[in-house]
Amino acid sequence: xxxxxxxxxxxxxxxxxxxxxxxxxxxxxxxxxxxxxxxxxxxxxxxxxxxxxxxxxxxxxxxxxxxxxxxxxxxxxxxxxxxxxxxxxxxxxxxxxxxxxxxxxxxxxxxxxxxxxxxxxxxxxxxxxxxxxxxxxxxxxxxxxxxxxxxxxxxxxxxxxxxxxxxxxxxxxxxxxxxxxxxxxxxxxxxxxxxxxxxxxxxxxxxxxxxxxxxxxxxxxxxxxxxxxxxxxxxxxxxxxxxxxxxxxxxxxxxxxxxxxxxxxxxxxxxxxxxxxxxxxxxxxxxxxxxxxxxxxxxxxxxxxxxxxxxxxxxxxxxxxxxxxxxxxxxxxxxxxxxxxxxxxxxxxxxxxxxxxxxxxxxxxxxxxxxxxxxxxxxxxxxxxxxxxxxxxxxxxxxxxxxxxxxxxxxxxxxxxxxxxxxxxxxxxxxxxxxxxxxxxxxxxxxxxxxxxxxxxxxxxxxxxxxxxxxxxxxxxxxxxxxxxxxxxxxxxxxxxxxxxxxxxxxxxxxxxxxxxxxxxxxxxxxxxxxxxxxxxxxxxxxxxxxxxxxxxxxxx
Length: 557
Ligand code: AMP
Hints:
The chain is an alpha/beta fold. It has a seven-stranded parallel beta sheet with strand order 3-4-2-5-6-1-7, with helices on both faces. The protein has a seven-stranded parallel beta sheet with strand order 10-11-9-12-13-8-14, with helices on both faces.
């Protein structure tokens, strides 16, 4: 498609200057398609992901439309999370840099409502907020809807996933029908289409596919293990996922040699590739990887540069890459040509900081997962043998074998299950004698707990912020922090400190119970290690803090 220049869009000079300052040369595809349509006053459904420039695609026409003279609320942007609300508010502020008299304000749960109310009183024209908090302000009449002419639903699918549907509908129903409504969503499931049908007027559908370094079709996970357990961890992941072809990245040549050797010893078809190999050796290794006789290629970044194999199913980062960009290059080796891919990263010690940088560089969340236990691996291997067995049972005639076997088992008094188990043992490669569970300081988690309704979680959180409660939810753990109300700390400060220092999304943090001298914070069990590790010796509101799991600590009022 043809990309427009911002100068061709009849924007006011203030916006054009700001866009120039921001370094935007041409409009991105979503901007080229959406801005002219929105400027015409039409409703739109924009199917676009983060990273496509979608914020400016609604931000620019929204600012063009705002009347700086009118000191009343004129536009509302609803976002699923506090992080996104802040991000959108930042982008709008940059775009409005030269527009005097235009004020925007992010409002979200967990932040002091009194200071938000103060902000809203100062003639704010644009509010960017999470649905729950916007509704709260509507009910308090601190947000007035009479002059609103534009509503944006940003990441609408994500808002519905978080259980905000009712809140969104309440907000939309309360605003005059004369408004313009812009709905953005990465995916278009039925509930989104229903909302569009009910609340949008003849919307134009605008769709863009994200180009650039896309990692969206790659499932990314990380694992926290001790350095000494990394080889075992890779072996278990390879066993469980059994990718047809995989690439394992190490940061040093020595590491490549050692790991390739170890994997070969364990019976994997693995080879190492690095700059010290002669060209002829490299050609041999690459040839074997291309034709599939080598399934696992262990390599350094430099050596892997020329690899152009399309069907790599998984990339493993045995070491976290030194450079954010390298991470994208590494994992971009999988998920090619429209296929799905997987990327696994092992983390030990301080690597978590590097991983956090990578996440913000790639604008993605990499979920933590657990390395399977020895028993998990064994079960998976057995299941594979059973599948092969079933296949043989269906397709091959075995009458002759069965006749002989039943006779033999009977005569020798052998129990059939035991016979099958022995055959199974013979056909499974031995699995190592290492520890059952090698996850670093892992706290046993109850997997059921992740199934509970996200809406409940949100409501629970809304109810619990700032209030004491003793209920411990499944999958959540309590942390103790040695600061509290008497140090003038608010729940929002704690929330901000945790989300700022760690990869934990704000929405996953549970109740924050503040007492005079200390605070209990409820967080998902899987983040406990990371939070305790990252927050130790940090400061909140200038005060040194100590943070630890709250096991055994009693609330004393
Ligand atoms: P978004 O998809 O809105 O999260 O935007 C992703 C990033 O691209 C942000 O850092 C924007 O500032 C930037 N961006 C947006 N539009 C453009 C553009 N036309 N040219 C260059 N960068 C842009």
